[in-house]
Known about the structure:
The structure holds two protein chains of two kinds. Chain A has helices spanning about 1-30, 35-40, 55-60, 65-95, 100-115, 120-130, 135-140, 150-160, 165-170, 175-185, 190-205, 210, 220-230, 240-270. Chain A is mainly alpha-helical. By secondary structure, chain B is mostly helical. Helices cover about 65% and strands about 0% of the residues of chain B. Chain B starts with a helix and ends in a 6-residue tail after the last helix. Chains A and B meet through helix 1, helix 5, helix 6, helix 11 and helix 12 of A and helix 1, helix 3, helix 4, helix 5 and helix 6 of B.
Amino acid sequence: MKQRRSLRWAGYAVLAVVAAVYIYPFLIQLGTAFKTDADATAHPLTPWPHEWSVAVFGALAQQDFPRWALNSVFVSVSVTVGRVVFDSLAGYALARLRFRGRTTVFGAVLAVLAVPSVVLLIPKFLVLNQFGMYDTYAAMIVPLLVDATGVFIMKQFFETVPVSVEEAARIDGAGPLRTFWSVVLPMSRPALITLTILSFQGSWNELPHFIVSRQDPALNTLTSGVATLVSGQLGQGNQFPLKLAAALLMTLPVAVVYFIFSKRFTRGTYEGVDK
Amino acid sequence: MVVPILMALWVSVSDWTGNGSPLSSRVHFVGADNYAALLTDPGLTQRNFATSVRNNAYFVLFVVPLQTALALGLAMVLNQRRLKGKQFFRTAFYFPTVTSSVAISVVFLFLFSSTGTVNAALGLFGVNGPSWFADPRGIFQLLLHGLGVTNPPQALTDGSFMGLSWWDWLSGPSVAMCSIIVLVVWTSTGGFMLMFYAALQNLPPSVDEAALIDGAGPWQRFWRVTLPQLRPTLFLVLTLGLIGTWQVFDQVYVLSRGEPAKTTLTPAYLSYSTSFIGKEWGQGSAIAFLLFVVIVLFTLGQRWLLREKGK
């Protein structure tokens, strides 16, 4: 009994320390965004500013930051809408429609999941270039519109919908698209919400694709914009409050979504994984 | 998906310079030249590639075991039935995983800057921390230096493999790479922890109870009972870990661009910089395909090592 109690205390202690290590960087980020340069350099260890300053946010607003934010919003929203539509259509087709080559298509989806995304950077660029799409919003959005993970999640979900529900609709004379739209889709709200969250988070945080699909600074998203803002001086020295404020602002939307939907977040990501 | 990859494969055996279409008649077939420059011809190209492979190999060697062990450990603790505040801890550990790698890299840039938080914390213990992102020294070599070995043994400097001396191969990750290792372990643990956690929740409690009745201690139960049941999840975590760590890119791009002294150069970043900055598309594609081969080989190797014995 005694051993068990001490074990429990040890467990709490470990968890508390690890949790502190995991949260502390975010506190530093939050606090330093409100510091002055000198304060950040002099007191890097405390998240609490000695002297509150919101100057950096003004400076960000003066720069290209609002433009990056708008680009990020535009691209992420387009990608999210596209993924919800195309992934669910593709998922439904794979789950329910009998057509020739269905297993091949599904195999291809799985194969795409397995190819490292870094290996695909150059192929993506080649195709965008070939189609004359390089350096446009389309180049940034179209290649992200369908993702294998999303198709997979939707297919898994649609397979759990009982066939009898759809048969009723079919007897009433509804075609596959109509059945999908007015019967199956309304039942799929949980899966659709999960897909929306994951798509938004994924495209908001995407970096490599936005590096290789455009060059024009006016097309910078938050990720690629902040990356260029930061990597100039190789991490030495100054303007950390500014950089951290930029990072903070770009974390906020995902953080808000995460704290609202944290249950769904964790469930959706690993759905079907623990089989 | 297949067409773009075939196109890239063609580019990797051509002398395309990025102008016009790679399929036009002005682009020539150069055979395996691009691959040879990376693998067999002595020169800067080969040395850069070898350096990037070395860096990434150390990266994988440190990150994969660390993140797997940490994730499993945290999941085991979270799985204690009477633990309070589970939701809080889960949120805390998982949150870094969902946030942008760029934003997190900026934070770590500050934490590990020479006047940053980590050095300030080390200063509390009287340790004078290094200038993390500017220090190109490998930690194994630093350790040896601390033990009094200042000059490498002749045997190690004489021989070389792919343009790097054995001494350079054995340097260990650089101080700069170590900070990236910390960063990646910190961000990736949460996701893997959840996978272990979900698997642990699905284990039937009866098996563990039976072992308890048979008088097995906690340590024994973990190694003999719990871990074997987690084998599929362990396999998945290791596979995803290996695939992920061999293509580390975002953090390198934001934090160091391969510097200092190329010690954080990775094949993924080298492939990007060779093609998109250096405009040597053939070379860059060749690196990407070699990286692909490395990933496939590692996945197969790991599958073979962890295969169910006696089947």
